[in-house]
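User: Predict structure, ligand acetyl coenzyme *A.
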Amino acid sequence: MRSVVVGFGGALPQKCIKNDELPESLNTSDEWISQRTGIKQRYVISEGESTSTLATEAAKDALRFARISPNDVDLIVVGTTTGDYTFPATACLVQKNLDITNGCPAFDVSAACSGFIYALDVADSFIRMGKAKQALVIGADSFSKILDWNDRSSCVLFGDGAGAVVLKAEENTDKGIQYCKIYADGSYSDFLTTTGGVATTQHAGVVTMRGREVFKFAVEKFCSSFQELLESNDLTIDDVDLIVPHQANVRILNKFVDVLKIDPKKIVVTIDAHSNTSAATIPLALNKIKDSIGTNKNVVLLSMGAGFTWGATLVRM
Ligand code: ACO
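Assistant: Predicted complex:
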């Protein structure tokens, strides 16, 4: 039994802030942000928008693409760390918004920027165990709500968004998820974190990070998890058609490409248009390229996020 990706969707907030529209008080510039990160703009939620509304729009989009009606979904997993409420889960709000009344399980997975890959692995496991047949997997975050808007070294990096895929159980196929491996190393938990939380300050807090260390770790883990994926599947870099990495900084991607001598054309880059949308970067990128992926292509997804968490997935489209 394999999980075949049959639907892609995405949603961005209405409000877009270009680098040169950031508050003057930040004392930053389009030049610094573009050169150091590749980011040109970010989308941020306004009144009436939230992580669950974006997740719902992305889900609707993916279901439309897959031509599956909401009540035929039998699992909803959302990767997010910026849900609308402490509880219920954002996945339950999506279920309600989509009028899904079949009682299917709906829950969130917390792995920060690796949230989508973690959610994908969970949903794939449900499908391979025969516990689900049509799963909605979403990565959605609204980091604009947990940024210190006075800290130019972090607030310029992030934006809001949601992306979704629909996984369908299929037998006797060579398509679908071939490999998914997720990892964590909690000893790095304070390298990228928030200044608060429910059981500490009773407030979500704001993002703090050791940028250079995060940068180094991301390159290292993109490289090692990608190489492990190749070895485990008896593949070489030439067998991989496309790589969709988490979008945190274009220089992380350039370094990854340099170290492993990968053809840069194989790397999907969306950071210029979307910035770092945390758990949403990978499904938003997949949504962006959905019409040009083609069939029988080997697509690798790579993630890295707070925890530290990271992961690698091989999908045959
Ligand atoms: N505008 C102008 N100047 C800035 C800004 C800004 N927005 N931010 C920092 N600077 C200044 C600093 O104050 C510093 O000035 P100084 O030399 O006078 O002290 C100078 O720029 C250099 O700062 P560094 O932190 O050394 O810059 P660096 O080249 O390391 O880039 C960055 C910083 C972009 C944060 C980089 O380290 C990075 O991308 N790290 C990865 C972090 C990341 O992507 N986190 C996202 C979450 S994790 C994830 O998604 C995987």
